[in-house]
Amino acid sequence: MTAAIRPTTNDQRPTMRIAVLASGRGTNLQAIIDACDQGTIPGPVVAVVSDNPKAGALTRARASGIPVVVLSLRTFPTREKFEQRLVEALHSYAPDLICLAGFMRILSPSVVQQFSGRIMNIHPALLPAFGGVGMYGEHVHRAVLDRGVRVSGCTVHFVDDVPDGGPIILQAAVRVDADDTVATLAARIAEVEHQLYPEAIRLFAEGRLLIDGRRVHILEERERGIAGTWDRDLVGSEAGLE
Ligand code: GRF
Question: What does the pLDDT look like over 72-101, one tens digit per residue?
């Protein structure tokens, strides 16, 4: 049986509900919002959740009229309660995809399992190098410079139980210059991140990302919809995969 291919023109395309979790400046969030506005991702971003009331991401969300949820870990008696509220908040927006974009909390396995295969993250290095616990923000670029590698980059991956260890979707390499500082390297990588993350989301939206153990197969454009988990009309037997 062949897959039912949905109309793909901008005005007829089904929309995908994206929730973004962010703790910082929110430049990746902005890239996602812009891609939705430009129609390269069939958005919208339906909610931005932050654990940092001062996050620039919240300002960006509000400027675009996107609902925000602020959950400060220290206002919860336990991490479990924090995560419980986080999960409730996410479910209330019924997201098809959850994008971590500089979210400074590691999600526990129980949270990840509830949205299995539907959480993505972007990391500012070429995983599996320079990833894992403690490898976030400037620490990553500092480690890259200290190790003297010639090439760094960024990685978009699905989130699983292992921090920065989930199936890799896309990577892009960025050169490391001899006179780079943490700031110059971070800026060069950020520019590429803003292209790569929307691209990964677009592939997901088109149902072209097939998770196969630790690998992600990127299906051809003509196969779009086959791997789709967000567009339930297209998955499983109807897509001829069972
Ligand atoms: C990015 O470098 C991303 O790779 C990492 O956190 C940073 C977030 O930056 N996970 P921004 O808040 O999107 O500007």
Answer: 999 999 999 999 999 999 999 999 999 999
Which of 23, 28, 123, 140 is the best mutation target for the ligand 1 pocket, counting ligand atoms within 8 Å of the beta carbon and taking the most? 28
Tell me which residue has its CA closest to atom 14 in ligand 1: 27
Kindly give the distance from the C-alpha atom of residue 80 to the centroid of ligand 1, in angstroms, as a whole number: 25
Write the pLDDT tens digit of every residue in 152-169: 999 999 999 999 999 999
Catalytic residues: 123
Beta bridge partner(s), residue 50? 70
Mutate to test the pocket of ligand 1, among 32, 52, 105, 122 (most ligand atoms within 8 A of CB): 122
Q: Is the CB of 169 under 6 A from ligand 1?
A: no
- pLDDT, residue 167, reads 98
pLDDT at 240: 38
Q: Quick check: 12 pLDDT over 80?
A: no
> 153 CB less than 6 Å from ligand 1?
no
Q: Is the CB of 191 under 6 A from ligand 1?
A: no
| pTM of the predicted structure, to 2 decimals | 0.90
